[in-house]
């Protein structure tokens, strides 16, 4: 989910060692996060830290812009990243382009730690369902994502 306009400010705050809370915009993290109302708490990435698989990170995308997405795979100095609402993985993302790591998320007014059992179960099942993610996202968007009012 891209957090438009505030991105350079967020990156600078994280680089300066501050933890922040942001409301990512967009739908790339559906169904986990709604870009209209949900938020995430971020802590700065430690200089030598390689975020673990399944971590949510705030990073500079290879194509430009910044977003909160999930680490799909890790390497010594690069990551493969995928938004929960996306089908295409982003390869060869340098670890150094990760500014922050999500520690909590606030969904529909309820706060979850990324270590909570319910969150970890969501991650486990959403990852396992990757082969049918396209169909699941179509159903989700058809039935649950509110339509713009006319």
Structure summary:
By secondary structure, the chain is of the alpha+beta class. 21% of the residues lie in helices and 31% in strands.
Account of the protein in words:
With 150 residues, the protein is of the alpha+beta class. It has one domain: Ribbon (Umud Fragment, subunit A), CATH 2.10.109. Strands 1, 2, 3, 4, 5, 6, 7 and 8 form an eight-stranded antiparallel beta sheet that branches. A hairpin with a 5-residue loop joins strand 3 and strand 4. The longest helix is centred in the last third of the chain and has 12 residues. The protein is globular. The mean pLDDT is 88.
Annotation keywords:
31% strand; eight-stranded antiparallel sheet; 150 residues; Umud Fragment, subunit A; 8 strands; alpha+beta
How are the elements arranged and paired?
Blueprint: H1 7-15, E1 20-22, E2 39-44, E3 56-60, E4 66-74, E5 78-82, E6 90-94, E7 98-107, E8 110-113, H2 117-128, H3 133-143
Antiparallel strand pairs: 1-2, 2-7, 3-4, 3-7, 4-5, 5-6, 7-8
SS strand fraction:
25-35%
- How is the main sheet built? 8 strands, antiparallel
The CATH architecture is: Ribbon
CATH topology: Umud Fragment, subunit A
Structural class: alpha+beta
Mean pLDDT: 88
Overall 3D form: globular
Radius of gyration, in Å, reads 15 Å
- Number of E-state strands: 8
The CATH superfamily title = Umud Fragment, subunit A
What's the helix count?
A: 3
Helix content: 10-25%
